[in-house]
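Data availability (excerpt). The following record was deposited with the supplementary files.
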Amino acid sequence: MPALAPPKSTELGNELERYLNTDIEDIRDAILWWHEHRAVYPRLSQMALNYLTIPGTSIHTHPPFN
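Predicted structure:
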């Protein structure tokens, strides 16, 4: 099954090089940007969307003991 095979390192490397060589953009919504560019950067966009959509958490911490 080719869809389950890991990408060749050169494929991911070329995608990363293309991304790193693009001009910096001023964006307001990173999730939307990666979604819109998923055809250009299929692997990077999947990684970015996986990372950016991790739910935030908060925990209450007690002040340190003195």
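Summary of structural features: The chain has a mean pLDDT of 85.
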